[in-house]
Amino acid sequence: MNILLILAVVFGVLVLVRLANVAQLASQLSGESDEVEQDKDNKVNAWLMLGFLWFGLFLLVYMILRYRQYMLPVSASEHGVGLDNLMNINWVILFVVFFITQIALFGFAFKYRYNKNRRGYFYHDNNKLEVIWTVIPAVVLIALVFAGLKQWNNITQVEHNDAMYVQVYGKQFDWTVRYSGKDNQLGKSSFRMITDNNPLGVDSNDHAAADDIITKELHMPVGIPIDVVINSRDVIHSFFLPHFRVQMNAVPGMNTHFYFKPTITTAKMREITKNEKFDYVLLCNKVCGVAHYNMVLKVVVDEPADFKAWLTKEKLVFEKAAAPAPAPAPQAEKNSGEEKKVVAIK
Predict the structure, then answer these.
(1) pTM for the model
(2) Each residue of 229-263: b (16+ CB within 10 Å) or e?
(3) Three-state DSSP state, 198
């Protein structure tokens, strides 16, 4: 199929070249001068420029409106709202500049096409114009940089005292989640302790790890700040929650963090998107290997009560040993008409 398409393109180009040659020969046979022929070509190209401009702008607007349903819905995190606002401001500026420059570019190509009776006005420089096109972009860019720094500080320079700690551990090619227990402290871990039964290398001697919980889904309570500790076993992965506007690299040998607050439950987002099958997802945003596409984890935002109910059903990192069976209750036995108690020896 690809070979046929390439051949079709090649033959199409050859046909156009031959048609151009035929048109040139026809003009020579008709006795028209090269100047007249060039003037006709200039007019045709000028109108084609104008047609391409309006067709391109129409197609751009149409594609945005037609496929906006496939864009991300509203942000499901507190900081994401500010990021979306900043991004929208950037898009507005980009579109305004894009439309002005494209209309000017193709419009000038149409208006100032070659005309033997017209002469261009030449001047060496225009200081006023240079100041305008230097100062205005500089002011706009400086404003955008400061707005971006403000959003960055809102994300990174916050107190984490009220956060629930969660570890997300990436490896080729899946994610594993570890929740801190009632003490809200994650037990220490090391790659040297990784085994088949301890895939995160959690230190069993650390008392903080006794109530840690391990899962294969990422659940979060709505309205509760989350401090995600992100780790990788092998290569660089990227912890990417597109619906929460969260992204942070998972780097082998170090801890990275991201602090955010979920604001929209999964059930509510299904109402917003009008999609009953909608689910949040955790993706790897780095091409980390041949099965990179498999690094997808289901993410659920619950009401706090539902989250607690779900978490209590998940297993601990180190399952507690089963309690010993209770001793049999004392039984009465008769001996020579008297009752004696049998004492259980422990």
Answers:
(1) 0.73
(2) bbbbbebebbbbbbbbbbebbbbeeeeeebbbbbb
(3) coil
